[in-house]
Design a protein that fits this description.
With 212 residues, the chain is mainly beta. Helices cover 8% and strands 41% of the residues. The chain is built from two helices and 15 strands. It has an eight-stranded antiparallel β-sheet with strand order 8-7-6-5-4-11-10-9, with no helix packed on it. Strands 1-2-3-13 form a four-stranded antiparallel β-sheet. A hairpin with a 3-residue loop joins strand 1 and strand 2. The two termini are 27 Å apart.
């Protein structure tokens, strides 16, 4: 077994790598002279951010003078300040103010937090003094579905999709689960090995992201 143990250490550690979406590492546990060695995986999603550019489609809205469905581009920008993880949209109306009134998007002090996969509700007010709320903010596939309203009586639903195809982080503590496929054909997080050789594993999460 000593020959196998030392060979596995040399061969397996180079397999620990970072894929586009998931970081996968293989840990080798020596079984000693009388038992098989074991290989086990450690998996984590690569850190992503909610900030960035998006394409939006807004519907189910208040404005009868605008088209039933509006589309355009919007960004989520992180606000630099004494508190981390505070963000704002470049247009909290998702095209509705321009389409309905012909005016610029809301400004003011509107902002929200995103931390530990949780979106906090909107705080502050727009430039007319009205407060806004996220009535719903959920991840659907690789997009966010947002239902919003404000104290002026405006409301709408929008779907935002990343403009560069990047993977979006989860919302509301979404549970991430993984499936495993080893080069041996086994589908468990850990396997036992007795033969010298090169072993690999592909890990897929429930959003379809992979790492190996």
């Amino acid at each position: 077994m000593r020959t196998i143990i030392y060979s596995l250490i040399i061969l397996l550690f180079p397999l620990s790598l970072v894929s586009q979406d998931i970081s996968v590492s293989i840990i080798h546990l020596a079984g000693g002279c009388d038992g098989p060695d074991s290989l086990t995986t450690t998996v984590s999603s690569i850190e992503t951010t909610i900030a960035g550019g998006y394409n939006y489609m807004t519907y189910n809205h208040f404005c009868t003078d605008a088209a039933d469905t509006l589309s355009g581009m919007v960004s989520i920008d992180e606000i630099t300040g004494p508190v981390d993880n505070i963000f704002r949209f470049s247009d909290f109306s998702f095209g509705l103010w321009e389409a309905c009134y012909g005016i610029d998007p809301p400004t003011g002090s509107l902002q929200f937090s995103y931390e530990n996969n949780l979106v906090g509700n909107l705080t502050g007010a727009d430039n007319y003094g009205d407060t806004w709320s996220f009535d719903s903010f959920v991840k659907m596939g690789n997009s966010y579905n947002i239902v919003f309203s404000n104290t002026y009586g405006e409301f709408g639903t929008t779907i935002i999709v990343p403009d560069d195809g990047r993977e979006l982080p989860p919302i509301d503590g979404q549970t991430i689960t993984y499936t495993y496929l080893w080069s041996t054909g086994e589908t468990t997080p850990s396997i036992e090995v007795t033969d010298q050789g090169l072993y690999s594993v592909t890990v897929t999460d429930n959003n379809g992201n992979t790492g190996s």
